[in-house]
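Is 2-acetamido-2-deoxy-beta-D-glucopyranose placement plausible here? Inputs below.
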Amino acid sequence: MTMATSPPPPCRKQQSMLLLMAFVVAAALSTAPSWAQSPPLQYNFYGTSCPQAEATVRNVTQGIISNDRTMGAAFMRLFFHDCFVRGCDASILIDPTSSNPQVEKKAIALRGYAEVNTIKAAVEAVCPGIVSCADILAFAARDAAVVSGSFSPFDMPSGRRDGTVSNFFDVLQNIPSPINKLPDLISNFAAKGLDVDDLVTLSGAHSFGKARCSECNGRLYPTVDPTMNTTYAAALKTVCPAPGTGGGDPVLNNNRVAADPNVLSNQYYGNLVTGQVLFVSDQQLTNSTYTAAKVANYSADAALWMQQFATALVKMGNIQVLTGTAGQVRKYCNVVNS
Ligand code: HEM
Ligand SMILES: *[C@@H]1O[C@H](CO)[C@@H](O)[C@H](O)[C@H]1NC(C)=O
Ligand SMILES: *[C@@H]1O[C@H](CO)[C@@H](O)[C@H](O)[C@H]1NC(C)=O
Ligand SMILES: *[C@@H]1O[C@H](CO)[C@@H](O)[C@H](O)[C@H]1NC(C)=O
Ligand SMILES: *[C@@H]1O[C@H](CO)[C@@H](O)[C@H](O)[C@H]1NC(C)=O
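Reply from A.M.:
I modeled the complex. Tokens:
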């Protein structure tokens, strides 16, 4: 594949900021591991090879989210899980086969796989064999922030290639748990080159989308976690039955405070301040002076959080990427090319 060498498109305000971030990230990565030796991601990578790529992803993603408003969160979480396991290489999308039955997607249930295939099919229709599934996940997550979070469109670097390996056992080692404490969350993110600021900033994705009672029941039964708001806990207990009482595992909105649970917003930080979040891993963000100050700042300043979330999402999208001639561009996102 040829590398686009054109400069980034004409500027919006955030663009120079993000560009600066990209250099910082690239510089940080170039000092360390071997996977950073291949060429870095670039803005508008498909500018020459497939000029309609990003607009096509945006159009289809927008259509999917307007049809089912819960899907923005699904795309956002897919990107997170993809990047944290073997890097942003679309390994999360690979279906099991008889020779590799134990793939990543079997470890934790995520939503949006069929929808990613729909986006890919639309992109293949305009530029067959050019646009990677890893880039589609990145673009769709960015577009989800725009559609579900009213972010101003921001640039997402691209040029990722698709991996050929997907392993169930990589997931549990790399994806943090909702019962993790702050030091473990910080070291989990650090292992991916993300810092404590990124942890606080990206956790704002829990302002939208879904969860399950089983992930917060430990904070409700047998006794209510003292860091949880008592009013909130009482309401949650009416929805989440005590484990072992045959009530199943109901689905919850991550954000039970917002009028609209499908909006990506800084309201998550207000919920943290008032103890109205689901997971231990969420509430732990108020467990140190530094992170609590950051939570308070984001709660008070939506624009600050949005700008930093966009920057952190771009940074997350650089984790262990395959570029240049590494990997492949899959034809179907759920299967490795034969
Ligand atoms: C900090 C550590 C994190 C932990 C422990 C964590 C854990 C979880 C858990 C347990 C759920 C509920 C899953 C379910 O029941 O289906 C969830 C949902 C979600 N997470 Fe996270 N997460 C973390 C960070 C992130 C990050 C960094 C992002 C994205 C930037 C993210 C995006 C989401 C989204 C959007 C959902 C809702 C998914 C849906 O509606 O299907 N999470 N997370
Ligand atoms: C945009 O998406 C809609 C479906 O939501 C599709 O019907 C239409 O053809 C798409 N247009 C372009 C230019 O991709
Ligand atoms: C608990 O939540 C309620 C809203 O349900 C709020 O009014 C109250 O201030 C919260 N309590 C604390 C200690 O933050
Ligand atoms: C942090 O959480 C632990 C329990 O997990 C608690 O004992 C400690 O007091 C908390 N510290 C702060 C500063 O909130
Ligand atoms: C919170 O905002 C204040 C005022 O702008 C700033 O001085 C402080 O450094 C911020 N704290 C964090 C942790 O970002």
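Short version: The pocket of 2-acetamido-2-deoxy-beta-D-glucopyranose (ligand 3) is lined by residues 229, 231-232, 274-276 (CB under 6 Å).
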